[in-house]
Predict the structure of TRNT1 nucleotidyltransferase.
Amino acid sequence: LLSFPELFEKKNYELRIAGGAVRDLLSGMTPQDIDFATTATPEEMKELFTSAGVRLINNKGEKHGTITARLHEQNFEITTLRIDVVTDGRHAEVEFTTDWEKDAERRDLTVNSMFLGLDGMLYDFFNGYEDLKNKRIRFVGKASERIQEDYLRILRYFRFYGRIAEKTDDHEPSTLQAIKENAKGLAGISGERIWVELKKILLGNHVNHLVRLMYELDIAQYIGLPLDGNLEEFDRVTKNIQNLCPKPMTVLTSLFKVKDDVTNLDLRLKISKEEKNLGLFLLKHRQELTKAMGPEPLRPYQDFIMDSREANMISKIFELLKYQGEEQLLKEMQEWTVPSFPVSGHDLRKMGVNSGKEIGAALQQLRDEWKKSGYHMDKEELLSCLKKL
């Protein structure tokens, strides 16, 4: 079977690697997935692949010009060069073209607008490679035009800034101006799309600076963030969690002051139930649930887990420790296995405790003793303790 680039070559269609994969390859990273661009239309590609016996995966991309081929256990997305004809700030109607520069022109950022020939030739119409080397994030052409084609690009700008830029505050003033003037457009973008971008921003570099910018440029209110976010707490927590791989919600919760902040975020962004619960948990316990003085600093956290008896409580406690910046305790906590209570009702029946009520009461007493011992007492010790009781 021919490799699919050869299929294109045989028919004289041009095929190049496009967008993010080129950016990653030039930064010396392995791209997560490789997207291709071609001068062949979707119809021509379908014919090409079908006659070569290549399986096509039916996806919704065809009207935008994207065909997905399955080859050697891998999916390849190949998109026809296109021009956006009408854009409404959310999605575009497209027409196909064979002009590579026209296709590059409708992409969002210069670092995402390059093509790489399979022979290693770089096609770079907007100085993307220069910007990548200088770690600069710029829109292709006029920022306001790019943003008005799809307002989500405001957040994509932030996301790539957090991924690529070296300096904290290295924006073109005109770009920030364009973002501020168009912030309102984010109100029309679906919560799900916003949450995907926001989560990546929260885990990237410069998060403190970027979230402050969201407030300065009037974006926060349109993406579900509280109007009076707690930026001091956010400062503190973003320092705490620098190397601790927090969940996005853990970082975000530091902006919140009250429960309604979580509810409002959920209404706007449709976050998952797990994310919502984590936010509420951190909000409720970030101040009170702290390490103990003395030889067993972890005890309050361990007791909390044992008392809650909730299966995934331990992962919430991990996030709380990250939030509090307790790196050492986090390590110890990750090595701790939740002990299981060694005595059952069955053991008590064997000892002649028979009524359900008594069994319940006895188990509770033993559980308290077990807790006092730091969960170290085994079955024998506990049962001999019962005899004393």
Q: What stands out?
A: The chain has a mean pLDDT of 92.
